Amino acid sequence: MNAEGDRRVIALIDMDCFYVQVEERENPNNKGKPACVVQYRKWKGGGIISVNYEARALGVTRQMRGDEAREKCPDCILYRVPERRGKADLTKYRDGGKEVIDVMCSFGVCVERASIDEAYIDMTMVIEQTLPGCTATAINVEELPNTHFVGWENETDDVKGVHGWLKALSKEDCNDNDWKLMLGAVLVEKIRAAIYEKTGFRCSAGIANNKMLAKLACGINKPNKQTVLPFTSVQDFFTTFPLKKVRNLGGKLGLTLREELLCTTMADITHIPEKILQERFDTKTGTWLYWYARGVDHDPVSSRRLPKSIGCNKNFTGLAALDSEEKISHWLEELCAEVSERLEKDRETNCRLAKLLTVTVRLEGDIRPYSYTRSIPLHSSYDKIRMAKSCLAVVMKENPCKQGNAKIPWVVTCLGVSASKFVDQLESSSRIDHFFAAKQSTILNPEKEKRVEEEPLHRKDGLYDLHADQEDEEFGMEEIDKIPTETNAVNIIEPEYHMAQISALSNEIFQENKEKASGASSPCLNRENNDSVKKTGFFASRSLKKCVPIHHSSEESIAQSSQVNPFNQTTFSVEEIFPDLNQVDMETLALLPPHLRRQVLQAIQSKQGNEGTAKFVVCDKCKEEFLKEEIEEHNDFHVAAELQREFSLQPSTSSSSFNNLEGAKVVKKSSKRPLKNQKNATKDTKRSRTIESFFGNS
Ligand code: DCP
User: Fold this and answer.
1) CA of 16, closest atom in ligand 1
2) CA trace torsion 508, 513, 519, 523 (10° rounding)
3) How far, in Å, CA of 682 to CA of 676, rounded?
4) Burial of residue 211, with CB atoms counted within 10 A of its CB: 0-12 exposed, 13-18 middle, 19 or more buried
5) Where are the alpha helices (DSSP H) in 58-90?
């Protein structure tokens, strides 16, 4: 790593007082008047979450409440965030943000949406095409009406530094990088003008060689301005710049640097030898910090127009704090309803599926607040009841009173639910689902052979903002260390019956292996076919649903499917599912029925020869063999199974609200039922009901 290697041209574009601008566009007559956006009217006029620059000039700040803003500025307009399901509805702000991203993308630059109102763009390629033949005289100062150059301002006529920079460019010793930044500034002026023209929104921007510097530069001149931070100006600039304002140094790392290593500015960090930084943190972080403090940041701009996560959270302050399971359950249902609705919309629009659901909880604590996040696999059904139930199970498990800390009050002051780990829907479902659907429909329902179903928090401080309920896009959970945390681990667990399905799957493979080893002939064909219905969950269930005519009774359906075993009547190559055995997706692998999964594992093993054997490990608990990369995830399944078992054993007091949930009883029954019984043909009716409830048809 070094300071010279990175000569990209990156910009951060950030909308000015974004929520207010969205409101002003709806109320054009109010443009130019002081205004704020507030959330909730209940107490002292609601919490301010966005303040326009007219109101800022009159002393209104985001830390105030609506009533205080009116005291400062009686004419201040207070727009209220719409509400839905008892919480903020941010749809129109989110949609406004998307409009802006679309304009940026039309310039052929690489765009990474970083929050509801800001995005990084990498202009390097576009600029490099323009670079040859550029001369200082070719740049017209009028092309840079709102551009400032850090370090080039002088106190007389060139407060923006544009002239100084242009002059420097005409000298012989100027380099390509200086030129690139100039051209970048010209392009960003154009992009910002287009954004204004197409959306009516004003924005500010920072232009530099990397994301960290671009972000930092963006905040220097606002609103409706852009700032270039040349690499040559960084050192001086850092001598006074507070490190806590720098991207990635706002959290715990920054706190350690400030409190332990007594650094307040970025330049302070440069006085610490790399070795000391490495010893205090770790080698990688130490080296990264060493260069970061010198303005070097290699974090790429990854092309991403969509948010990495979709979620929302709600604060419960004062008397609104949640102090009972019923209240927590109610709010989890509300949050999950919103997330589920947005996920469905996202699936339709963007053809992708979220795989992970994360619940974040902040508790009052006995001495100080603390928070934790827990993640669980997310099923593509996006069933809000199911999602809420899973989240509640996690929250109940973490109840401090249950962990022997009876004195700690169990008071929840913030709840967040967020879905992430998106995969391409077609990639995720078509390969496997179509595979199953095609094979099954051919055999079970030939006339349907041709039918093939196919199946992006903003503000980093959002979660812990006292007023704002927010959507969580990209960064929602990242800043969890904004408040001191006692518990801050992220576990992936699976408390639901999908868990039972997967652990049944593991057991099944194990059982089958034993049977094979003992030479016992088992009615494995039929059983596998039946069991694939429950064990492989989503894919197999859907396939069955598609193939079995509706008018058949459950017994008929199962009986019919058990008479034919499509997997054994048709041969297939592992490559049909995983064209590249070096890149087998573990999540997909876990969803396969046992015999297919084993075939894939065997194929990988034989492909890798002897070397391959070292890639497998045996699970202590179920003695099954797993790929090394897979074992950690598999261990989580055992943790989840344990959790599931605990829930099943608990008296109904703690799960009273579960029992009111649609489908929850079926789930409980199915998870309590021993595996052997599940295989019993007499239970087929129940099994079928479980499948239907899985699709919400029960
Ligand atoms: N927001 C929020 N809660 C917060 C901070 C912000 O809901 N604690 C919302 C309202 C803002 C939007 O996110 O309009 C973008 O946040 P910014 O911090 O970028 O603030 P603004 O865009 O309002 O103003 P600025 O011009 O300073 O960027």
Assistant:
1) 26
2) 20
3) 12
4) buried
5) 66-72
* CB of 119 closer than 8 Å to CB of 200: no
Q: Which one of 16, 18, 81 would you pick to mutate in the ligand 1 pocket, going by the greatest count of ligand atoms within 8 A of its CB?
A: 18
Residues with CB under 6 A from ligand 1: 14-19, 49-50, 116-117, 222-223, 458-459, 461-462, 465, 468, 470
DSSP string, 513-564: HHHHHHT----HHHHHHHHHHHHTHHHHHHHHHHHS-TTS-HHHHHHHHHH-
Distance of CA 110 from the midpoint of ligand 1 (Å): 24
Distance 215 CA to ligand 1 centre (A): 15
Interatomic CA distance for residues 5 and 461, integer angstroms? 33
Structure tokens belonging to residue 32: 């130019």
Signed CA dihedral, 66, 68, 73, 75: sign only: positive
Ligand 1 centroid from CA 116, angstroms: 9
Distances from the Cα of 161 to the Cα of 11, 142, 214, 224, 471, angstroms: 18, 14, 17, 17, 39
Distance 16 CA to ligand 1 centre (A): 8
Q: Which two tokens stand for residue 611?
A: 């070397």
Which of 20, 50, 65, 90 to mutate for ligand 1's pocket (most ligand atoms within 8 Å of CB)? 50
Give the Å distances, CA to CA, from 577 to 317, 583, 587: 50, 11, 13
Active-site positions read 118
Instruction: Tell the residue nearest (CA) to atom 9 of ligand 1.
Output: 49
More confidently predicted of 109 and 547:
109
Indicate which residue's Cα is closest to atom 4 of ligand 1. Answer: 49
Summarize the confidence of residues 330-335 as an average pLDDT. 96
Closest atom, ligand 1, to C-alpha of 458: 13
Who has greater pLDDT, 196 or 655? Answer: 196
Quick one: pLDDT at residue 474?
40
Cβ-Cβ contacts under 8 Å for 498 (sequence gap 6 or more): 377, 379, 537
Query: What percent of the chain shows pLDDT beyond 70?
Result: 59
Query: Residue with the nearest Cα to atom 23 of ligand 1?
Result: 17
Angle, helix 664-672 to helix 628-649, in steps of 10 degrees = 110
Greater pLDDT, 435 or 690: 435
pLDDT tens profile 465-486: 444 566 554 433 333 222 223 3
SS3 at position 374: strand
Task: State the burial class of residue 33 (Cβ atoms within 10 Å of its Cβ: 0-12, 13-18, 19+).
Answer: middle
Question: Looking at ligand 1, which atom is closest to the CA of residue 51?
Answer: 23
Whole-angstrom distance, CA of residue 625 vs CA of residue 600: 13
CA 189 to centroid of ligand 1, rounded, Å: 22
Nearest CA to ligand 1 atom 28: 16
551 within 8 A of 573, measured Cβ to Cβ: no
CB 552 within 8 A of CB 560: yes
Name the residue of 116, 459, 460 to mutate for ligand 1: max ligand atoms within 8 A of Cβ.
459
Q: Helix (H, G, I), strand (E, B), or coil: what is residue 411? A: coil
Using alpha carbons, list the distances in angstroms from residue 339 to 227, 346, 387, 417: 37, 10, 9, 7
Q: Write the CB contacts of 24 (distance below 8 Å, at least 6 apart in sequence).
A: 30, 31, 35, 52
Q: Which ligand 1 atom sits nearest the alpha carbon of residue 19?
A: 14
384 C-alpha vs ligand 1 centroid, how far in Å? 29
Read off the amino acid at residue 53: Y
In tens, the pLDDT along 22-45 reads 999 999 999 999 999 998 766 788
- Residue carrying the six token digits 């344990």: 642
Report helix, strand or coil for 300: coil
Residue indicated by tokens 């920079």: 165
